[in-house]
């Protein structure tokens, strides 16, 4: 069944729910911002610590720990109650931020980023699960759209904020600013969020948690194979892929027999759950995975400065805002989410298919319009996978289902980033590419490009446009996969508050 009996909202007072929601969004902004804010500060960090060959791990270590811990936190919330699990995640993230800000070497910073990631993964999963406790299914759709806005806003302003804070206060400030914010959020949740004790005795699936962590770690490492090992086909990368496949098979074997599995296999009996996971993967691939490549595309093919390229991102963010708010309200009113999944994938498919044929001289207005269309597409279905699986799963498994969706989105982003990077590297690093006066096209910064002669700059722009064409076609293929999956969804009707209360009363009477 797609409609499940769920408990009454955790907090009855609407004003208190809004204040709690504000604390939750602050925690989410803090956790998601930290993956983006560090990007513009990386050159400064490397300048202080050296070890240029390890700087990629500052980002990868965070993503790795984030992805590996997500499903575990979802299950822990189901078993122990979401309040203390979420507070533990925020505390771990805050401590990790403090250690990052006080790091004395590159290795210390990377280790601290792992600690941050373990906290950040718990924050992202627990927030959606707590939202499910706070709001009715239809009302939840509207608030999940606000969550999606915070998620995308952090990605849009992170690089700008990181660069500004690094210039004004030093790179350590981008981590240390999380410490007072973390304490404020912890205090707010401790006082205002009620504790709902789960009705079952906890039985921790340690083997399942370890095997899932090994599987997700292998996926992230393999996705970064080009950067870490030089090639996706290197012996090290192939070994990691084989290890990940074995871990995944062992995980399925263990989960089928565990009394309290991390991700219950019964969830996959509902085809809606599996389809929504696929949609979440494709969404991560084109929404999260494409952000940095859009920035690179704008600065290399249009000649825009970093600040002007950043301004063009307002169209992308604006589209996300319009799409997300509209979808949230309409899903809340009508109770149907399938049409928005279809419309989302269709918009992004058209946008990327058209971008694949954009050349270096294409007017900025055309590129901006396509970014706006893609933004609307992202926004329309941003909250669909979370709402869908929370409705499809039994109330006892909401945390585990939410964790699985969040993990699949991050996994889709990680894999796509690797594929996009491999395409760009192959096209720009080929032996046939030679531009007079440019020793290595890939090492050009926007400032260096602006100083090139017009003819050379045009040649570089055309080279990048040629590299981005297959990249955008690949993104369009991800969108097509999402579109066909969305069409396959059942047209589920979310329960209204009245119907849900009636079904809950009937269930209680039957007991």
- End-to-end Cα distance, whole Å, is 19 Å
Please give the CATH class of the largest domain: Mainly Alpha
**SSE pattern, N- to C-terminal:** HHHHHHHHHHHHHHHHHHHHH
Q: Kindly identify the CATH topology of the largest domain.
A: Growth Hormone, Chain: A
The percent of residues in helical segments reads: over 70%
**pLDDT < 50 stretches:** 498-511
What name goes with the CATH superfamily of the largest domain? MFS general substrate transporter like domains
The assigned CATH architecture of the largest domain is: Up-down Bundle
Determine the structural class based on helices, strands and strand pairing: mainly alpha
Number of strands: 0
Tally of helical runs:
21
- Indicate the overall shape: globular
Mean pLDDT across the residues is: 76
Query: How many structural domains are formed by the residues?
Result: 3
- Major beta-sheet overview: none
Strand residue content: under 5%
What's the gyration radius in Å? 23 Å
Structure description:
- Helices cover 77% and strands 0% of the residues.
- It is mostly helical and 511 residues long.
- It has three domains: 201 residues, Growth Hormone, Chain: A (Up-down Bundle); 53 residues; 247 residues, Growth Hormone, Chain: A, CATH 1.20.1250.20.
- It is globular.
- The C terminus is likely disordered.
Essential attributes:
Growth Hormone, Chain: A, mainly alpha, disordered C terminus, 77% helix, 511 residues, single chain
Detail the topology: elements first, then pairings:
Blueprint: H1 14-37, H2 42-49, H3 56-80, H4 82-101, H5 106-134, H6 137-169, H7 173-176, H8 178-192, H9 206-223, H10 225-229, H11 235-257, H12 271-287, H13 291-301, H14 306-334, H15 338-355, H16 364-381, H17 384-392, H18 398-428, H19 446-450, H20 454-488, H21 497-510
Helix pairs in contact: 1-5, 1-6, 1-8, 3-4, 3-5, 3-9, 3-18, 4-5, 4-8, 5-6, 5-18, 6-14, 6-17, 9-11, 9-18, 12-17, 12-18, 12-20, 14-16, 15-16, 15-20, 17-18, 18-20
